[in-house]
Write a structure and sequence with these properties.
By secondary structure, the chain is α+β, with helices and mostly antiparallel strands. It is built from 4 helices and 8 strands, in the order H-H-H-E-E-H-E-E-E-E-E-E. Strands 1, 2, 3, 4, 5, 6, 7 and 8 form an 8-stranded mixed sheet that branches.
Length: 193
């Protein structure tokens, strides 16, 4: 009885962590089965990278022209942004610091964004056409956009610090010359516009 009570107290002290739970599924070979051949599969690879704190896969899903942006709701002058190298470095530090990192990109809007000079006859309902005057124009390219809420939970046992995040991500993907889809723009809205 005392052993059983000790186990119950230990479980309560550790919170939701279950030492008897099976390990989280990993693709055979540690992620080698993942693909960037379609926009949806790139999001699956991102999900894998985030939930397994795999910085190599995180780096793979980002385009060389990747740009992260966190707009300021009240003042455009306070917008923050950075490129791929800084983002991979920062996310790597986050992965190392937090013992627990859970990421779930929820369902939401998906559409295509047609840059100036593209064939607009292929547009469907919900798609967006950009003009050369648009600051976000990407001439001659059609990008796929996912606008979705995300839930994240991060916890560091040593410092007893944790964070829950629920906000809107807008992730834009483009098909590279190698035929693979990568994230080229990521806007992280600290509020839900």
């Amino acid at each position: 009885m005392l052993k059983r009570m000790s186990l119950v107290l230990l479980m309560a002290a550790l919170g939701c962590w279950n030492p008897f739970a099976p390990d989280q599924e990993r693709p055979p070979g540690g992620g080698e089965e993942l693909s960037l051949e379609a926009p949806e599969s790139t999001l699956e690879a991102l999900d894998y990278a985030m939930n397994h704190k795999d910085i190599e896969w995180y780096d793979r899903v980002l385009d060389e022209d990747y740009w992260f942006r966190e707009p300021n709701e009240y003042d455009d002058e306070l917008d923050k942004g950075w490129g791929k190298e800084e983002d991979v470095e920062m996310v790597g530090k986050v992965f190392k610091y937090f013992d627990v990192f859970e990421y779930k990109l929820l369902g939401g809007r998906k559409y295509r964004e047609f840059g100036s000079g593209t064939d607009l006859s292929k547009m469907e309902e919900g798609d967006v056409a950009l003009t050369p005057e648009d600051p976000d124009d990407h001439p001659g390219e059609v990008w796929v956009v996912f606008s979705r809420p995300v839930d994240m939970y991060m916890y560091n046992y040593a410092d007893d610090k944790g964070y829950k995040v629920n906000q809107l991500f807008e992730i834009k993907l483009r098909k590279g010359k190698d035929g693979l889809w990568r994230i080229v723009r990521w806007t992280d809205y600290p509020w839900n516009p």
